[in-house]
Each structure stands twice: as structure tokens, then as C-alpha cells.
Design brief:
Distance between the termini: 26 Å
Helix content: 25-40%
Strand content: 5-15%
CATH topology: NADH Oxidase
Radius of gyration: 17 Å
CATH superfamily: NADH Oxidase
Strand order of the largest sheet: 1-2-4-3
Number of strands: 4
Bound molecules: flavin mononucleotide
Order of helices and strands: HHEHHEHEHE
Number of domains: 1
Structural class: alpha+beta
CATH architecture: 3-Layer(aba) Sandwich
CATH class: Alpha Beta
Number of helices: 6
Largest sheet: 4 strands, antiparallel
Length: 186
């Protein structure tokens, strides 16, 4: 198997990071790998906010935990009260990706960008986790609050994030994949 295919096959979502910050040059390579992603008509309907300020990340997490605590389900309330709950798994760097949702393919183009950054990170020995749950607290009319906090340009809306850091411990096993997702017409 060539190195590219090996990198694709061995990438994992990692949910435990060392508290050490990644290097600037590594971050730059990851961003560049995302920004070269394919997009419909090369529209590049994305904006990336690099967040290394833990106070801002904690603010987002706390908003989400507040929301969990409002649930009718006691198990969800428990997660909202749990010290360990953290949407970004305490990663030292989080890339928040915002989409121009007026573009038909805005969301999927941003997915391409995130995937390329995750693969680039993995090739550099940096762990990542693609995360959307941080949006839950802001979906019902609070998006502007999040956009202001993140200084996201007006035409974009946060949709995904990528947590980045050096992995704490070995990478997890691959989760099983569906076996019936392909059909062939020859
Ligand atoms: C759009 C999207 C949203 C995701 N959101 C979360 C999330 O909020 N929290 C989380 O822990 N993982 C999240 N994941 C990671 C998936 O759970 C993970 O990719 C999947 O279980 C397969 O595991 P793997 O990435 O290790 O192959 C998300 C992945 C995608 C593509």
C-alpha cells in the first residue's frame, strides 16, 4: 500500500490529547492542505477560525453543557454536570470551519476541507477529531452569539470543527464500516 493510502486507512478520530501545543509550521501545513480542497466551481465557500484560546473554547463548552442540563433525560443531564464532558476533548488547537450556506454545496465543500486537514494532520503525527456537537447550543437562534465570539465574517456560519493535538496514548482501533455501501454495474 502506498503512503497516501496508508495514511487514509490509519487516520482515527482521537478524543484524548496531550496538553502540548502543536508547532506553527505543522498548523500551517494542515491549513494549506485544507485550503487546497476541491469545492464546487472552486467557490471555496469556507472560513477557518484557528482557536488556541482555551477561554473561548471553555465558553463554547459551557454553553453546550448548560443546554445538556436543560434536558428531560437524566443521562443527558448527567453529562452536562460531568467535569469530564468537553466537546473538543481539551485539544490545544481547534479549527472552527464556517460555511457560506448560500452556496448549494457550501456544507459539503467544508466537509472536504475538514477531511483534508484531518488527513494532513495524521500524516504529521497530529491527532484530530472532526466535531459538530459544539454547534448544538447555538442552533436555536443563538448563532450570532457564536459568530461574534469567533469573529466569523458575516456571510459565513460555523458548521464543523477539527480538534488538533498530539495524541495521548495509542490511536484507537478503527470502528466497523458497513459492508453493503457499494454496488457495481459492469
Ligand atoms: C460531520 C461529522 C461530525 C462529527 N461530530 C463528532 C462530534 O461531535 N463528536 C465526536 O466525538 N466525534 C464526531 N465525529 C467523529 C465520528 O464519530 C467518527 O468520524 C466516526 O465515528 C468514525 O470514526 P473514525 O473517524 O475514527 O474513523 C464527527 C464526524 C463527522 C464526519
Amino acid at each position: 500500500m502506498n503512503e497516501v493510502l496508508k495514511n487514509i486507512q490509519t487516520r482515527r478520530s482521537v478524543r484524548a490529547f496531550l496538553p502540548k501545543q502543536i508547532k506553527e509550521e505543522e498548523l500551517e501545513l494542515i491549513l494549506q492542505a485544507g485550503l487546497i480542497a476541491p469545492s464546487a466551481n472552486n467557490s471555496q465557500p469556507w472560513h477557518i477560525t484557528v482557536v488556541q484560546n482555551q477561554e473561548i473554547l471553555s465558553w463554547i463548552v459551557e454553553k453546550n453543557k448548560e443546554k445538556l442540563r436543560q434536558s428531560d433525560d437524566p443521562e443527558i443531564v448527567k453529562r452536562g454536570l460531568d467535569e469530564k464532558t468537553h466537546n473538543f476533548y481539551r485539544a490545544p488547537t481547534v479549527l472552527i470551519v464556517s460555511a457560506d450556506l448560500s452556496r448549494v454545496y457550501g456544507m459539503s465543500d467544508c466537509g472536504n476541507l475538514v477531511t483534508q486537514m484531518a488527513l494532513a494532520a495524521h500524516s504529521l503525527g497530529i491527532a484530530s477529531c472532526y466535531i459538530a456537537s459544539f454547534m448544538n447550543a447555538f442552533r436555536d437562534g443563538q448563532m450570532d452569539l457564536l459568530k461574534d465570539k469567533l469573529e466569523v465574517p458575516a456571510q459565513f456560519t460555523p458548521v464543523f470543527s477539527l480538534s488538533l493535538g498530539y495524541p495521548e496514548g495509542p490511536l484507537p482501533e478503527a470502528r466497523p464500516r458497513k459492508q453493503n455501501a457499494v454496488n457495481f454495474l459492469k
